[in-house]
Design a protein that fits this description.
By secondary structure, the protein is an all-alpha fold. The protein is built from 13 helices and no strands.
Amino acid sequence: MAKRKNILPGFNISLGFTLLYLSLIVLIPLSAAFIKTTEISFAEFWQIVTTPRVVASYKLTFGASFIGALINAVFGLLTAWVLVRYTFPGKKFIDALVDLPFALPTAVAGIALTAIYANNGWIGAWLEPLGVKVAFTPLGVIIALTFIGLPFVVRTVQPVLEDLEAETEEAAASLGANRLQTFTKIILPAVWPALLTGFALAFARAIGEYGSVIFIAGNMPMVSEITPLIIITKLEQYDYVGATAVAVVMLVISFILLLAINGLQWWANRNNGAER
């Protein structure tokens, strides 16, 4: 049997270039952050990263990112379903609109969201009499992070739904399954790995978001101040070690959370393959 020839160079060369590229772009810069923190003792490091102001920013950043990604997982799946399963006027326009957070500069998004949700904004003016304050609150942070994370879920789930033939749902209905059973037994298992991937991407994107958040957050310490802003503030004060220490904590927590999500995705893919 003739040996199959690959279009790209062999495994050793390809792997070498891959490791070199990842080292230059990812590993070396991240390693530099850890090396920078060795300039201080562990006691000083712990004191920097556990101050009440920094801890409050952790809670807001990771909490708002998780909530925003969770909202996008639900409504991103619904949006992808509508774009795949239905034909209606303006479908291509709405499909292109989903990618707007990708193309829109984050500062522009932040200014636009602030103008809309401020007390005198288009939506904020209606919410203010109801006692709902969005701009300059943690709720505004969640809305901003939801805005920038939606395309990650839609574009991840959409190809899977396109490959999932409608005849499968019709066959389930013909066998007596109701809509809920069809969704939970047929659709959800098929899109679950992609949905988890979209959730992880939206969550990771939200953790590091800065431009679209600082305008609508108000940046009040202990209330609506995100961790990336604290890092920027320390850099502006020439506190490079302090900024690096906070960045390392963000890096470690993000890595652990993404590792857990990827493990869950691997488990979902394994179970999905076993069922087939």
